[in-house]
Write a structure and sequence with these properties.
Helices cover about 50% and strands about 15% of the residues. With about 550 residues, the chain is α/β, with parallel strands linked by helices. The strands form four sheets. Strands 1-18-17-12-14-13 form a six-stranded mixed sheet. Helix 6 links the parallel strand 2 and strand 3. The protein is globular.
Length: about 550
C-alpha cells in the first residue's frame, strides 16, 4: 500500500481536467432540459428539472474552481426559482434566461476547447435505479391545519432532499396546483368525517389526460371508520399519528420512484411467440415495462440483470416444467418476496392449488388479464418495492443498511473488474460522537447522523453509494473514480461540514468527521471486505492523528 498526501496544485489541475471531460455530457443534459421547456410536458416539472441541473452544475463547478461557470449557472438557478415560486412569469423572463443559458453553454464549450477535450458522449454505465434519490425532486404537497406539525414534517422531509410545498388549507394547495402539479398530496386529518369532505381531492388535482397524484393521509385517529373511508376515497397510503418516519419516507420514495420511472418491470416467461406479443402489448399499453424469456433457465439469469418487480409465468395445462420455478426464485434472498403470478390457459383448480402450494402468489387466466387485474399487478409491484425499501434502507438515516451496502458494493466491484476501472471506498466516523450523546441526548445524536446522511447524499454523485456501517460510522463507495478525485471531493465534504450549524430542538451542534480512504483497481483477489478493512485502518490513523482528517492510501 502507498500512503497518499494532500493535493498539490499540479494534482488539482489534473482533477480539473477530469472534470472538464464531463462537460460534453453536461451540455447535452442541459440542452435536453431546455428543449423540454417548449414541449407538451408540464412546464412546472420541466422548470424544476432544469433548475436542479443548474444547481448541480453550480455546486460542482464551484468546487473545481470554475468561478465563471458557477456564477452563470447560479444566476439561471435563481431566476428559475422565482418562476417556480410564482414571483415572476416564465414569459417575462424566458428571453433573459435564454441569453444566460447560451452564455453558460459558451463558457462550457470554451473550457472544452481550452483543455482540448473531444466532444463525444462517453459510454454510460447503467447503475441500479433503486438507489439514487433523484425522484425526491418531484413536488409533494403537505396540507395540515396544525402549523407546528406542518413545520416539523416539512423540515424533516426537506432535510431528506424532498421538494415540499406546505399549506394550512386545501384551497391554498388548489391555487398552487395551477402552476405546479403535485406528485403526492399528504393530507393531515382529525377524523373520518374530514376525509369524507375531501373525497374528491384526487379529481381536483388531476389534469386532463394525466395521472392523478398519490394521496397519503396522516390521521390522528386510527379506527375502522378511518380505514373504510380511506379506501372509499382512493387513499393510497394511511399513517396513524405520530408517524413512523422511516416507513413514511420509504412509502414516499416508492411512490415518487414509480412516478418518475412511469413504469414497473415485469419479467414474462413464455415460449408461445403469439401469446408473448399479445401480453407484451397489453402491458405496454398500461406503461409497464416487460422483458420476455422463453426458457426456465433464463428466468434466474434475468433476475440479476433485469431486476424485475414482478414475474409473470405462462403455464399451459400440459406443461409441468414451471412447477418449481417459484421455489428456485425464492431461494435467492433478495427475491424471496418478489410477486410470482402464473398465467393459465384456462381455469383449473387442481393445477392452481398445486402452484399456490409451491410458492406462486396468484394464478389468472389470459382472459382475466384486463384493466382491473393490471391495477392489481401494479399494486403488487408497489408493495414489493416498498418492502424492499424497508429491507435495504437503514431505519434511522435512510441510507443503505450495512448488508445492502455490501451487496451493492460487491456488484460495483465486479463491474469495475470487468471494465478495468478504479474504485474508491471511504469509511467515515463522527468525531466525539459519544460526547454529543452525553451532552445533548441521544435524540440530538440521531439528528446529527440523519444530517450527515442527507449531507453526503446531497454532495455526492448519483452513482456513489452511501451506507451506514454501524453506530456513527458510514461507508461511501465511489465507482469509476481515482484517488485524486475521491480525495478532493471527500476532503471538501469534510471541510464544509465543519462550517454548518446543525439545528436540533434543544441545541445547535457543530460536528467534524474523520475519514479513511482506499483506492484500488480491482483484481480477482479484491473484495468489499478487503476494502473495508483497509479503509478502517486509514480511519484509525486519522483519529489518532487528531481527528477531523482524511487519510488515504492506494491498495496495490
Amino acid at each position: 500500500m502507498v500512503d497518499y498526501e494532500p493535493l498539490d496544485s499540479e494534482k488539482f489541475e489534473k482533477i480539473r481536467l477530469m472534470y472538464v471531460e464531463s462537460f460534453p455530457e453536461k451540455i447535452q443534459t442541459l440542452q435536453n432540459c431546455y428543449a423540454n421547456l417548449g414541449s407538451s410536458k408540464e412546464l412546472a416539472s420541466v422548470l424544476i428539472e432544469f433548475k436542479n441541473e443548474c444547481h448541480k452544475l453550480a455546486g460542482s463547478s464551484g468546487s473545481h474552481g470554475f468561478d465563471e461557470i458557477y456564477k452563470s449557472s447560479k444566476k439561471i438557478e435563481k431566476q428559475l426559482d422565482q418562476v417556480i415560486e410564482q414571483e415572476s412569469h416564465w414569459e417575462e423572463v424566458q428571453g433573459h434566461i435564454s441569453q444566460q443559458f447560451n452564455a453558460l453553454l459558451t463558457l462550457l464549450r470554451n473550457r472544452i476547447s481550452e483543455y482540448d477535450i473531444p466532444q463525444y458522449e462517453n459510454e454510460q454505465i447503467d447503475r441500479s435505479e433503486n438507489y439514487h434519490l433523484s425522484h425526491r425532486g418531484l413536488p409533494i404537497y403537505l396540507v395540515s391545519e396544525r402549523e407546528t406539525e406542518l413545520t416539523l414534517l416539512s423540515n424533516m422531509l426537506r432535510n431528506r432532499g424532498f421538494l415540499i410545498y406546505s399549506f394550512t388549507n386545501i384551497e391554498q394547495a388548489k391555487l398552487k396546483s395551477k402552476a405546479i402539479m403535485p406528485a403526492i398530496i399528504v393530507l393531515d386529518i382529525d377524523n373520518a368525517h374530514q376525509l369524507i369532505d375531501e373525497k374528491d381531492i384526487k379529481k381536483v388535482f388531476s389534469p386532463v389526460n394525466q395521472e392523478p397524484p398519490e394521496l397519503v393521509v396522516i390521521s390522528r385517529m386510527d379506527d375502522l371508520d378511518i380505514r373504510i373511508n380511506a379506501s372509499w376515497c382512493g387513499v393510497d397510503a394511511l399513517f396513524a399519528s405520530p408517524i413512523n418516519s422511516h416507513n413514511f419516507i420509504s412509502t414516499l420514495d416508492v411512490m415518487l420512484e414509480l412516478k418518475q420511472l412511469k413504469q414497473g418491470r415485469i419479467l414474462f416467461a413464455d415460449d408461445d411467440t403469439e401469446r408473448v406479443n399479445c401480453i407484451s402489448n397489453i402491458l405496454k399499453e398500461q406503461n409497464i415495462k416487460c422483458l420476455t424469456v422463453n426458457q426456465v433457465s433464463h428466468i434466474i439469469d434475468a433476475l440479476f440483470d433485469y431486476k424485475p418487480d414482478l414475474i409473470l409465468i405462462s403455464l399451459d395445462l400440459c406443461d409441468s416444467e414451471y412447477g418449481n420455478v417459484a421455489k428456485m426464485i425464492r431461494s435467492h434472498e433478495y427475491y424471496f418476496n418478489v410477486p410470482v403470478i402464473c398465467l393459465l390457459a384456462q381455469e383449473d383448480h387442481n393445477i392452481k392449488s398445486k402452484l399456490l402450494g409451491s410458492g406462486v402468489d396468484d394464478c389468472i387466466t389470459q382472459d382475466e388479464l384486463n384493466a382491473d387485474n393490471l391495477i392489481a399487478l401494479k399494486q403488487k409491484i408497489i408493495r414489493f418495492r416498498r418492502a424492499n425499501h424497508l429491507i435495504i434502507m437503514d431505519s434511522l438515516t435512510g441510507t443503505l443498511s450495512r448488508d445492502a451496502f455490501v451487496d451493492r458494493a460487491s456488484e460495483e466491484i465486479s463491474l469495475a473488474k470487468r471494465r478495468n476501472e478504479n474504485i474508491c471506498l471511504a469509511m467515515i466516523d463522527v468525531d466525539h460522537f459519544k460526547k454529543i450523546n452525553d451532552t445533548y441526548g441521544h435524540a440530538t445524536g440521531d439528528h446529527v447522523l440523519r444530517h450527515l446522511s442527507d449531507y453526503l447524499n446531497n454532495r455526492l454523485r448519483r452513482s456513489d453509494v452511501v451506507g451506514r456501517y454501524g453506530g456513527d460510522e458510514f461507508l461511501v463507495l465511489l465507482p469509476d473514480t481515482n484517488l485524486d478525485s475521491a480525495y478532493l471531493v471527500l476532503d471538501m465534504v469534510r471541510e464544509n461540514l465543519i462550517t454548518q450549524n446543525i439545528s436540533t430542538s434543544n441545541a445547535e451542534v457543530c460536528v467534524s468527521i474523520s475519514l479513511g480512504l482506499v483506492s484500488v483497481r480491482p483484481k480477482d483477489a479484491v473484495n468489499i471486505e478487503t476494502l473495508i478493512i483497509e479503509a478502517d485502518k486509514k480511519l484509525y490513523e486519522a483519529k489518532i492523528s487528531g481527528r477531523n482528517l482524511l487519510v488515504s492510501t492506494v491498495l496495490q
